[in-house]
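We give this protein:

***
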Amino acid sequence: MNTILNSVYTADAYFRLSKEDGDKVESDSIINQKALVREFLKTHPEIQVYKEKVDDGYTGVSFERPAFQEMLEDIKAGRVNCVIVKDLSRFGRNYIEAGRYIEKIFPYLGVRFIAINDNIDTAEEMSASDEMLIPFKNLINDAYCRDISVKVRSHLDVKRESGQYISPFAPYGYQKSPHNKNQLIVDEKAASIVRQIFKWKIEGMSAARIADKLNGLGIPTPMEYKRMNGENYQCCFRKKVDVVWTASSVRRILCNEVYTGVLMQGKTYSPSYKVRKRIAREEKDWVRCEGCHEAIVSAEDFKLVRKSFGEDTRVAPDRQSLYLFSGIVKCGHCKGNMTRRTVPVKGKKYVYLICVENKNSNRCSFHKMIPLKKFEETILRIMNLHIESIFEMNRMVEIVNRVPYSGYLSEKLQENIACKESLIEKKKRYATEIYGDYKDGMITGEEYQELKASFRRQAESLEAEVHAMKQELGKIAKERDDKAQWAARFLKYRGFQELTREMLLNLVEEIRVFDKDRIEVVFRYQEEYEETCRYIREEAQTGRGVPNDGKKE
């Protein structure tokens, strides 16, 4: 290494600390680093400090640090010709980059480099062995950083798998528990806004209209709300000085499954501890954990919103929400959407539904126009009839709720559990009874030990099977409890005299129009409806569970 000769040096003293690198806070604190450098300078009067540069909280793997870059500007401008650090690890932990600066860039620019604790001073003549020591120490610092990175990644993976929240900031609507930073709790003030956003969307408002309404009400955006609460939150989505709600910010909330109590983490990763760029993972590789925290919206409402994104069409400029049947009414012939057409006749306007494929390209043979007013009346009548039929079946729903587990699979699992539990008792009894055979001399000691171990293994295997079946049974029970709510969703709208967008999204999968006299309404929960009817019918035939009131099912 070239010897740098100068009588007086103007130096930048550089200090760095990063928990990410595993730095020990006490020994490597900025205060301790400064004290060491200042003590060193007392014995080197030829060095005058120009400025102290501090990168607190920046990893040594990357040299793209604010204070480090400022120091380089001082060097390039000729303001300093010396750099002082506590040791090589404070300078950096990237073996290649650290070597490039110390062995090439600094000698070329005539900069003296001093690492106090490593006894490195490029102004002094160094032996070959001393020069070899520098890259060796840089390599050790690099390896140390890599080892810490592997351990940190592994620890974070374990936390993700166990359903712990590891991001630095809580999603809008939540806050971190004061007792556990990896647990989300509901922030009721923001959560009420999230619920309202979902409600508006279900009622038919577009994301852009919701954003306009929030701005009109003066509701702070998620970023501004966090800052109002004292959080130093930065977001990559911000592009303007004036932060307002946008359709994109509303859509991010509506598409975030975290509001149903589900954590989706590990969406991005960095390929190396030396690379700061984040790469997106495929959705199948995300870490998904359910029931990690309290839900703000129901899973059913989240599904409705997701479904509406696939159905929604454009909103007219003079309207706040979608048309009543947007994306729901389909042509029964070509499966395309039915769209509105307004026809003026003698100064009056009449609205019809027409197949969009026929309207735009004549690719569909169905060319009839369906009067919208009459169509609405027909759909309302059909829906009320269906709701009334469910109301009449309300006692059947109550019976289903009283039955612990319904369905053939549940019954079969219960039978298998009872059978295997009986076998477990037998195996345990055999393991005990063979001791009598051993005492009576009917079997040898070796045979007794082998048989006893065999019966115990069989019992343990059966117990594992029973445990798995009970878990499956519990899962079915939970699904059954969820499904049992389907009737309540219909009865909620009993007696409605006017169709609403919310009612259609909640109760109807699709409406198919084949002709003005043939319209099919595909209701949601049809499978549950038929399953309940079948179950009640079977119970009535066997005389179990259904009160005999003389009525036929």
